[in-house]
Design a protein that fits this description.
Elements lengths: L1 E8 L6 E5 L4 E4 L5 H11 L6 E5 L5 H4 L2 H7 L4 E2 L2 H6 L9 E2 L7 E3 L2 E7 L8 E7 L2 E6 L7 H7 L4 E5 L4 H6 L4 H8 L7 H11 L6 E5 L8 H9 L6 E4 L8 E9 L2 E9 L5 H23 E2 L2 E2 L5 E6 L1
C-alpha cells in the first residue's frame, strides 16, 4: 500500500500538487500551464492518465491558471465549490464541473478527499486531506492563521504540504508597501515560518514522515533559511522545500498493517516509469527487514524506540 506525492510547483507563480496510489491520483490546484504540468509529470515518471480529478482550493490565479486547458485536454472533472467557481475567471466545460461539501469525503477510486474551510482572502477557500486506507496526506497552504481545524487535521497526517510563506523580519524590512504587508500577515493572508514551525512542533503526530514546506515567497523568504529552521526540530521527519521553479522528487509514503502493529517506512526519489514495481520491490525488502527488527527488539508488545511503530528510513 503506497501513496506517491510531489509538488509540481509551489509559490505565487503557480501551485500544483500530486497525490496518488498505483491506480489513481488527483491534483490539488492547477496553477501552472498544461504544457508545464505535462512536462514535469513526464520527468517524474508519473502518467497523466492516472490523474482522475482536479481539486481547487480557491480562485486566485496562481491556483487555477492552467485549469481550463488541462481539464479540457484530459477530460478531467474539476471539483470546486460554487462560490469559488463564480469568482474564478476561467471557462470550464459544464459537464466536467463537480461540487464538493466541506467535511464530507469525495471518493475518487480508492482515494478519499476531504475538504475543510480555511482562513484566506478568497470567496470559499478550502484545504484538503487525501486518505488512502489509513494513510493521510494534507495540503495546507494559503492559510491566514492556524485554526482548530488545521490543528485537528495536521495531527492525523503522515505527510503534509505546509505553507511557510514568509520570514517575519524579511517581510517587515522588505520592499512591499504597507497594505500588502498587512494583507500577508493578517488573519486571512499567509502563514509565516514561525507560525508553521509552532504548528509542527506542537501537533505533529509520531508517525509523520515527510513535511514539504510550501508556497515560499520569492521576496520575503529563503529556502535555506526555512529548511535550517525546521531541520533543527525535525525529530526524524524528512524536511523538503517545495520549489517555485521546478518539481520536487516523488516521495513514497508507505505503511502496512502487520497484526496489531503497524510497520511503516519512508522513502523518496524520482520514480522512473514504473513506480508501482519499484515500490513493490522496496516493500518486500523492507518488510523482511522490519520483521527481523520486530523479532529482535520486541518487548511487552512495543517496538524499541516508538509506540508500536518500526520506522525504517531510506534517503
Amino acid at each position: 500500500m503506497s501513496l506517491y506525492i510531489a509538488s509540481l510547483n509551489s509559490g505565487s507563480n503557480g501551485n500544483c500538487y500530486y497525490i496518488g496510489n498505483d491506480q489513481e491520483a488527483i491534483l490539488v490546484d492547477a496553477g501552472i500551464s498544461c504544457r508545464e504540468t505535462e512536462r514535469r509529470m513526464r520527468r517524474l515518471g508519473l502518467p497523466l492518465d492516472r490523474v482522475k480529478a482536479i481539486f481547487i482550493s480557491h480562485e486566485h490565479d496562481d491556483h487555477i491558471r492552467g485549469l481550463e486547458v488541462l481539464s479540457k485536454r484530459y477530460q478531467l472533472p474539476v471539483y470546486i465549490t460554487i462560490p469559488t467557481l463564480q469568482s474564478a475567471r476561467t471557462r470550464l466545460e459544464p459537464e466536467g464541473i463537480r461540487s464538493f461539501t466541506a467535511h464530507k469525503p469525495t471518493v475518487i477510486g480508492e482515494l478519499e478527499v476531504t475538504a475543510f474551510p480555511k482562513s484566506h482572502d478568497a470567496s470559499d477557500p478550502c484545504s484538503f486531506v487525501i486518505t488512502y486506507r489509513h494513510l493521510r496526506i494534507g495540503v495546507f497552504t494559503d492559510i491566514g492563521h492556524v485554526c482548530e481545524q488545521v490543528i485537528h487535521h495536521f495531527r492525523q497526517c503522515h505527510a503534509v504540504f505546509l505553507e511557510t510563506n514568509y520570514d517575519e523580519q524579511m517581510l517587515e524590512e522588505g520592499r512591499y508597501p504597507y497594505p500588502l504587508k498587512r494583507r500577508i500577515r493578517g488573519g486571512e493572508g499567509h502563514l509565516s515560518n514561525r507560525q508553521a514551525l509552532e504548528l509542527f512542533m506542537a501537533h505533529r503526530p509520531a508517525y509523520m514522515s515527510h513535511l514539504l514546506l510550501s508556497h515560499l515567497s520569492q521576496d520575503n523568504n529563503r529556502p535555506e533559511l526555512v529548511r535550517e529552521l525546521f531541520e533543527q526540530e525535525a525529530g526524524g521527519v524528512r524536511i523538503i522545500v517545495a520549489s517555485r521553479y521546478e518539481e520536487t522528487e516523488v516521495y513514497v509514503i508507505d505503511a502496512v498493517e502487520d497484526g496489531s502493529e503497524m510497520v511503516q517506512w519512508r522513502a523518496g526519489g524520482r520514480m522512473g516509469t514504473t513506480p508501482g514495481a519499484e515500490a513493490g520491490a522496496r516493500k518486500a525488502a523492507l518488510m523482511e527487514a522490519a520483521a527481523k527488527t520486530a523479532g529482535s527488539k520486541r518487548r511487552k508488545g512495543k517496538t524499541a524506540g516508538t509506540d508500536g511503530v518500526i520506522q525504517i528510513t531510506l534517503f
